[in-house]
Every structure is written in structure tokens, then in C-alpha cells.
Amino acid sequence: MTTSTRTSSTRSGDTGRTPPSLINELWRGTVRWDLLTPFPEQDGAERRRGDEACAELAAFLRDRVDPTRIDEDRDLPAELVAELRARGYHRMFRPAGEGGLGLSYANMFRVTETAASWSVPLALMFGKANALSPAAYLPLIPPGALNDRLHRHLREGTFGGSADTEPTGAGGDTRTTTATLDPTGTTYRLDGEKTYITNGTIADLYLITATLRENGTDRVSAFFVDADSPGFEVVARHDLIGLHGSPNAHLRLSGVEVPTEYRMSDVHAARDDVRRVTYHGRTLAVVPAAVALTRMCAYWSREFVNRRRIDGRPLGGYDEVQHMVAETVAEAYAMDALSRWTLLGGTADTLHEHAVLKNVATMTCWRAADRTVTLLGAEGLETAASKARRGVPALPVERALRDARVLRVAGGVDFLIDFWCARIRLADCHYRPADEPGEPSGTGGLLTADERLAGHAAFVDREAAWFGAYCAGLAARHGDRAALFARQHLLVALNRIANELLTMAVVLARGDAGADLADVYCRAAGRRVTALRAELDEASDRSAVAEDWLRGDRYAALLDDVITGPAETGRA
């Protein structure tokens, strides 16, 4: 598969400037097929190192970990956490001589995916420890007391965590947790609460966000806090619909004292670097689990269908079953392609594709899990332990459905990620001049011998051109970007269209060898794009209905014959 030459409004890497971004170019209306070919692959030696690491972990998990027991007990055994820590899985990026595994980012993703295929809460535990712990920010910390402190924690093998979400929610630009500088100017006092904190019950060191008032201005800053600090408290562990056993907790800080040198003071000055750590961290913490579950849904579908017959006919011979199985297999293929592209990226800058990958992977995982439960019927609703008791293969499909639903919220609820990403892309691509305005794109595109793929590529090109023009028109009509950004549902739909088109392009560029899978995926994705376009033209105002309901003075009959209010807990 080859590409035609197309010009771009993003500077290419050989100018010494920021490499081009596939998603930025798409928001401007151009599909940069040239960035996708040749499709990136891991270096042979690095791939072999990843194979070894995945095989080693798989053997350990099969021998030592019972994922059904973890799910039923809602607990990761302390001895298991200790052994994983001793083996260096909480700092896979560090050299072996420093107690780590010496893995590249791509291989850390693969190892975390292997873990998630066996136990998702276990994978999220060390995925988060590697991705968004204080140690992940170490390269941003200049030499000095804080840098020395973080290195000491690494040498001691401590577990890291980050705490940002608060009881008031996770979607705001401010934090209710406060940091107050004491009169001596040497210590900050932190007060507030944090909720839904992954590794909240086991971390030794946290990166905690708080609102700091300086010179009459409030700003969000970040502080490194030891779990054994006076005033630091783990209030309770959260039990969620899925991820049973995840060490997820509610934290409280009551006058926790933090030396001034343990504040990461350059959060805003180095916001691009912080954003890169955050995006990469969200990917490693959430996406491997979503990709793994999608793969497992394809596997479970095959295992179930191949052992079932209906009216003497193999279940796999029925048309609708074939459609369902094909959709799941094609989605597993697409997620493999998109994750490979985002992690490896070739000559492109894939930072913003990380945000795309989080939502695409978790939404795809949810579709696959829901479809697989439907395919298995009642057996899809039955727990693995129940299946084992009656002697049928204990496929943990219902557990995967519960875990998949949590993944859509973990790392940022899906619609908020869509909204935030759309704001950034519109601002960067349509409210600021391009780095280097290029000539209009030519008519060429992805060249392929497969007519089906050529048709899908033409669809992506047409839709991208329309999409870029539509976004440019929105920006032209909204000189005040705040007015446009207030239309949240519109922005969410725009970002989902862009995500679908980007994923289609990546899948098509992977090569003709997967043409059948690419065709199945792109047909379904094209239908989703068409449906999302209809949402852009929808003029119906929901605000009146929402306001009437929230006031409680209309539509009261909708609550007839139901019991409202929470039930008391602990009653016999």
C-alpha cells in the first residue's frame, strides 16, 4: 500500500519544528495518508524484549493469581501487591539495575495489556503506578531537593499515586482542596478531600492538586505528599460496579504540611510537558485494559459459538451471529492498529492521538463487551464462578462488561474528554493561524488494490474535507470562541466524528492483508459518522425540558408508583 503526496498546514519534522499531527490535519480538513505509510512497527529487538516480558508475566499470573477470587472478594491480596512490587511492575520504565524492568513505553503498554487480559483491576493498579505517579513527572523536575526526594523514593521501591478528582466532581478548572503558605514562607498547608483515587489505599507518595492563592490570584498547583504525613487520611475504599478489588479510595487532607520545595511550581510554565505526561499516563493507565478486553471478547465469542448448536445447526452458521462475531473481531483489529499507531507514530507527533485513543478504545471495548454478552444470552449474564459450579467454561463475560463500563469513566468520563479535546482542536486549528499555510490538498489519497478499501478511503477524504470546512465555518461565525465552546453537545459530536475518521484512516493504512477486517470495521464506522452528522443539525432545545425537570415542578407523574430516595443500609 502506498500513498500520494499531499501538502500540509502543519510543519513537517525535517524543518526542525514540531512534527506534523495527523489529528490536527484532519480537523483542518486533510487526511495525511503520507504520515501513515509505512505503518510503524516495533524494532525487532524491542519486540522480542516485550515478548519475553509479556510471557514472564503471563506465567506468573496463571500460577499465582485467581481473577475470579479477586472479583468475588473485591480485594487484591496484600501479598500479591507486595510480590508485584518486588518484581518491579510498579516501575517498569526504570532500568533493571534500579529495580525496574527497563521497558520501553510500547512494551509497558503490552505488559499492562497482558495483565488486563487476566485481571483488569490488577492491570490498572500498576498501569497507574507507572503512568501517573510522581515518578512519571521526574524528568520535568530540575535538580534540587525535590528531584533528590523523588529519586530516593524510586530507590526505595515505593508505590506512587496521583490525586486530582474531588467530591465536587472532576470537570472543573479549579480545585476545592487548598494550599496555604505559612507565615514563614517555608511550608504549605493542604486542606481538602480527594475521591476515586486509584491506588489510594496502597500508595506511599502522591502528587496532589490544590488551589493556591498567590498575589491575589488563584491557580491550581501540584504538591508531592507522603502518605504517612500527619493529617493525611484514607477515609474509605470505593466499591465500584466493576474493577472489584481495585485499591480505589477517598482521601482527606487536614492541615497536611508540605515543604515549599516539594511543590511542582512549573505546572503552568511547562504545561506542554505536563500535558504530554498526562496524555501518555492516561493511555497507559486505561487503554491497555480496553484493548485487552476487546481482544478477549473476540476470543470468548469464538469459544462460545464453536461449542453451540441450534436445531442441529452450528451456531456459527447463522447470519446474525456471523455479523456479531465479525464486528467484534474487526473492532479488535482496529484497536490493535490505533494503539500501535499512537504508541509508535512514525514521523508524526501523536500526542493528541493519545486523547483520541482513550475514548475510542474504551467506547469500542464497551460495544464489544455489550455485544458479547448479548451473543452469549443468559450465559453472558452469569458469573464465571456460577459457570464453573455447573461445569461449563467459565468465560468471565459479565465481569468484562462491568469492567468495560468503568473504563469509560476512568481517566476522565468519555463525554468530557470529547468536549475538552474539541475545544483544544478548534482553538489550535481554527482560532490560530497554521504554522505554515500549505497549498490545497490534491485529489490523491491512499492507494490500494482493494476496491473496498479504496471506497472507504475516498469516504474518509470526503468527510474530512467537509469536516474541516464545517469547523472553519463555525469559527468564522463565532468570533467569540466562548460562545461556540458553550455548545457542549455540538463539540462532543464534532470530536466523535473526528475520532471515527482518524480511526478509519489508521485501519485502512495498516495494509491490504487485513482488508476483510478493515472493510467490516469501516462500514460500521461510516454509519456512526453519518449518525453523528445528523446530531450537528439538530435544532431541538433540551434546556427547557432539563430545567423544568430539575426544578421539580413539572412532569411529576413520571415518578408515580416508584419508591424514591436511597434505602437504609445495614437493615436485616
Automatic annotation (TrEMBL):
Residues 284-413 form the Acyl-CoA dehydrogenase/oxidase C-terminal domain. Signal peptide: none annotated. GO terms for molecular function: acyl-CoA dehydrogenase activity; flavin adenine dinucleotide binding. Residues 56-132 form the Acyl-CoA dehydrogenase/oxidase N-terminal domain. Pfam families: Acyl-CoA_dh_1, Acyl-CoA_dh_M, Acyl-CoA_dh_N. Residues 165-255 form the Acyl-CoA oxidase/dehydrogenase middle domain. Keywords: FAD, Flavoprotein, Oxidoreductase. Residues 1-21, 159-185 are annotated as: Disordered. InterPro entries: Acyl-CoA_Oxase/DH_mid-dom, Acyl-CoA_Oxase/DH_mid-dom_sf, AcylCo_DH-like_C, AcylCo_DH/oxidase_C, AcylCoA_DH/ox_N, AcylCoA_DH/ox_N_sf, AcylCoA_DH/oxidase_NM_dom_sf. Its cofactor is FAD. This is Alkylation response protein AidB-like acyl-CoA dehydrogenase. It comes from Pseudosporangium ferrugineum. The lineage of its organism: Bacteria, Bacillati, Actinomycetota, Actinomycetes, Micromonosporales.
